[in-house]
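Form P-L/3: holo structure prediction, ligand ketopantoate.
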Amino acid sequence: MRYVVLGAGAVGGGVGGLLHRAGLPITLVARGSHLAALRADGLRLRVGREPERTWPVPAVGAPSEVDWTDDTVVLLAVKSQQTAAALADLLPHLPPEVPLVSLQNGVSNERTLLRHVEHVHAITVMMPASHLEPGLVTIHSAGTPALLDIGRYPDGLDDVDHAVAADLRAAGMASEPRADIMAWKHRKLLMNLGNAVDAACVPGEDAATLVDRLRLEGERVLAEARIAVTSAADDQDRRGELLRPLVDRDAVGSSSWQSVSRRTGDVETDHLNGEIVLLGRLHGVPTPANELVRRTLNDLVRRRGRPRTVSAAELLRRLDDATETHEGPATSR
Ligand SMILES: NC(=O)C1=CN([C@@H]2O[C@H](COP(=O)(O)OP(=O)(O)OC[C@H]3O[C@@H](n4cnc5c(N)ncnc54)[C@H](OP(=O)(O)O)[C@@H]3O)[C@@H](O)[C@H]2O)C=CC1
Ligand SMILES: CC(C)(CO)C(=O)C(=O)O
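OUTPUT (holo model):
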């Protein structure tokens, strides 16, 4: 199996670097100053407590430059808001039988991919990683570097799932094929509802309370929509302490925090909090907290604000005021 990783940042660069390190044939598709650094010096990869090493991973600037073969698998690792543009670059060059694997958070990408490609697979990405300067990717777990279970979208398993999982394991990551992979990705979605608060808000108790509200809304919406979600207990069992301990993580936030810090000009919240808002609208469940946080983070990005500068207490106040306006003061209820 050959791999093409489209989007060579924290996750794509990290997984691609580990596959390359294990001797598997892989090409990174990157762009801008990151591509220039990869071509000039190679991929600088930090894994847990290991010393940084530089790997000469083949890197190209576009799917048109890939030497495509039928035994290739594409790992898509751009942020969800970048998927449509990445697909537009990819599709004219992609052989029809080549499977596309979403190595992304959220649950919106797979459906988008299936519109264009017959063989779509999903990975639940548990991999605390960062990419904050061109050429450099850091994997923060000093335990197992990543936990990447895989299955076919919308469900089921085939030989590709088994082969990719085996290659990921050969490269030191944890990966099992799972026929119900989207149930696992919906559980992960609930966790990622907190990314926007991590990116936008001053950390503290109020931020934690706000994240709880986002997740409560998310749980309600997914239940009302009758979407299968892996239980929190099963998710916890699967993770255990695999991705621990974390190193050099304190100064680095979630993937959404990284987008704001790098001033990429876009952020994934419409596909994380926005997924809950969308489902809420479809199923008649109010989702004011996810909507407020989604709007707040998009606004921060638009005005090129700094991460972690919005008051979570103020957002909670606005949510409570809106509830009182709709339902009357708490005393009269
Ligand atoms: N970082 C983490 O710890 C984790 C991230 N995830 C998920 O993984 C996915 C990827 O996130 P992450 O790795 O953090 O994101 P990054 O921004 O670090 O990496 C994405 C990379 O793709 C590049 N890119 C975007 N569009 C294209 C294109 N058309 N052609 C070539 N390159 C392109 C970006 O370039 P540019 O910088 O120029 O935009 C960037 O280098 C997301 O869904 C995220 O939620 C999941 C678990 C953990
Ligand atoms: C779980 C977490 C926070 C790991 O870094 C993540 O998925 C992300 O950063 O998007």
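COMMENT: The first strand starts at residue 2 and ends at 6.
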